[in-house]
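Anyone able to model this chain together with FE2/S2 (inorganic) cluster?
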Amino acid sequence: MNDKPTGIANGLTNYGDRDFSLYLRRSFAQSMGYSREMLKKPVVGIAYTPSGFNNCHRHFPEMLEAVKRGVLAAGALPIEFPTISLGEVFLNPTSLKFRNLMSMDTEEMVRSQPMDSVVLMGGCDKTVPAQLMGAVSAAKPSIMLIAGPMMTGRYRGERLGACTDCRRFWAQYRAGKVSDAEINQVEGNLATTAGTCAVMGTASTMACITEALGMCLPGTAAIPAVHADRLRAAEATGAAAVRMIGSTLTPDRIVNQKSVENALRVLLAIGGSTNAVIHLAAIAGRAGFPISLERLNALSDTTPVLVNLKPVGNGYMEDFFAGGGVGALLRELKDLLHLDCMTVTGETLGERLAAEGESWVDRTIIAERAKPLEPQGGLVALFGNLAPQGAILKRSAADANLFEHEGRAVVFSSLEDLAGRIDDPALDVEAHDILVLQNAGPHSASAMPEAGYLPIPKKLATKGVKDMVRVSDARMSGTAFGTIVLHVTPDAASGGPLALVRNGDRIKLSVKERRIDLLVGEAELQRRASEVKPAVEAPARGYARLYAQEILGADQGCDFAFLKPRG
Ligand code: FES
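re: yes, here you go
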């Protein structure tokens, strides 16, 4: 610790008289029962995000007590404060719309309240990226405490985990293979404990990425939410936050080009969520540098998929934790990583791995480098005249038979159009067609929902068709699977070429060439472009107006332009 004012004496409220401000603050703090001695201690803030609308965070009260225990035992005063919480399935139109709002809330509350370091408690999909974005911008010593994944449930002897199994059963229900009564029983067994989705979805991916970035304690990303180790991790995180006080271990330093590259390696090796590309771009953007999709492809070509979890494999997060967790994965990837990256403990990544040494690894869950699940990374960026600024395909969750595919476009102009016609028996669609969804990107009124996993039209699903090439400017849940081209940028609502696709056009996907192309002549495309009308009316007021004015494309992480660092 250094000699600067600490604790509640920091950042006084401005009444024009500094001593009066401190006296008044102490007085009001004492009204909460704190002694004067306690108020002389340095303060660890705890960004606390439980919510009745966030099932994934329902164990946070217990975790909070453990964090406070760790802070107090290490000699500081823990003070929790609320920020917005984003429960993935409770937000309309989509949680992504509010990620930047949560990041602003986090940044401003961390910066403006008197704390010397901060523990950020997050877990559900958008909460962790929002907190990391806010923390990088606030630039105070910060450490993440991850919620941890749910345990699996059971249905007729089969393990179930949100939410890959949610989709699998729903697809069977749509195909008429699961009854109403059965789907109701499945519904009650998909998400049975506190914590985040049990597979390698977006929340688990962001947890692993947080550890790879060096922003949480080693070995803590994958601990199940209900495991006693989760509480011990919370206690240790509180103590670590005290050690960070007065240090230069700030997230704007820990997050840099090398640590983000480590995070991308981990993302690829876990076959992680496509959403993480957007979130990492936003986090990196706050630190002042972009993520290049060409670089993502170069990393993907040299990073094997090693983790056998749903949706690309068989296991669940509880298996990953028991099988060695992120530490074991990092050891497998060691020669591909930047080991000089600093972490929240004050150790470099290399020092961490050296200190941990070797330990038992479940090779059915975390494969050896010599025997990878896939020789190349789970994600690939595509370019071409349909996506000049890029698109993403999760090849590890896709059907390789469709990687080189040309087909006829069946176009849906909006989510409403999709919902209205996808199951229409009269829909003109064949199994080898390419389904296209427009106006579901960040600039659309729907704010880039996880709608890229277009359902297989019922008339084809009932005939046994399980996968088709699907193309959109939307996102996809990290728990979903299929040959699905996402994040087409620029999006249709901002005038991208996706808006120019018409029923019957030919589209060519080539994963080998990293391209997605609309096979229509330039003159015709220009004619169509002159006819396209703006898809969105500017909202009149409030956050929706701010969103519409400031939202950036997927290639820039869908951050707000004004939140990027100057220069
Ligand atoms: Fe919170 Fe899936 S709903 S992580």
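The chain has three domains: 41-151+193-356, 153-187, 379-536.
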